[in-house]
Amino acid sequence: MTVSYGSNVAQTSFIGILRLLLRWKGSAWKNASIELLIWSLLYAVVSIIYRTDWFLTEYQKDVFENIKYELKERRLHAHVTLVFFLGFFAKTAATRWLNIMENMGYIERHAHIIGSYVQGDDEHARLMRRAMVRWMCLAQVLVFRDLSVRTRKRYPDMESIIKAGSAQW
C-alpha cells in the first residue's frame, strides 16, 4: 500500500515534520517500536538491579563490572576483526569485478583488429567487415540475454532480435 506524504511534506514547520515522523502507516517508528520497547525494558531492568542495593552485594557488583569490562574488550577486538574482514571482502569483490570487466569481450577491440586485417576499399571488403562486426554484436546480445534481465526484457526471443536489426542474414 502506497502512503501519500505530500500534504505533510509541504508544511515545513516543526509540527509538520513531527506529524510526518509519527504517521503510523509505513512509519519507521512502526518497524522499530517493538524492538525499541524490548531493549528499553531490558536496559531498565538491568540498570535497576545494578544500581540499587536491594538485589546485588558489593562482590556481585564487582563481578558484574568485570564481566562488563571483558565484554567491552572483546567487542573492541571483534570490531577490529570486523574491519579487517570487511576490508578483505571489499578487496575481493573489487578484484572479482575488475577481472570480469577485463575478461568481458568488447566489440570495439575486435572491430579494430578486423578493420586492420580485412583490407580493401571495395564493396566486398566493406560488407565483409560489417558482417563480422554484426555477428559479434549478435553474439554479445545472445550472451547478455543470459546475464542481464534488462537485455532479456528487451530481447525476449529471436524474433525481437531480428526486428531490432541485430540478426540480419
Describe the model:
With 169 residues, this protein is an all-alpha fold. It has two domains: 28-103; 107-164, no CATH class. Helix content is 79%, strand content 0%. It has helices spanning 6-10, 14-22, 28-51, 58-103, 107-117, 123-147, 149-154, 158-164. The mean pLDDT is 81. Forms chloride channels.
Largest sheet: none
Class by alpha and beta content: mainly alpha
- Total helix count? 8
Oligomer: single chain
Q: Helix and strand layout, with pairings?
A:
Layout lengths: L5 H5 L3 H9 L5 H24 L6 H46 L3 H11 L5 H25 L1 H6 L3 H7 L5
Helix pairs in contact: 5-6
Briefly characterize the structure.
The chain is mostly helical and 169 residues long. The chain contains eight helices and no strands. The chain has two domains: 28-103; 107-164, no CATH class.
Any key phrases for this structure?
mainly alpha; 2 domains; 0% strand; elongated
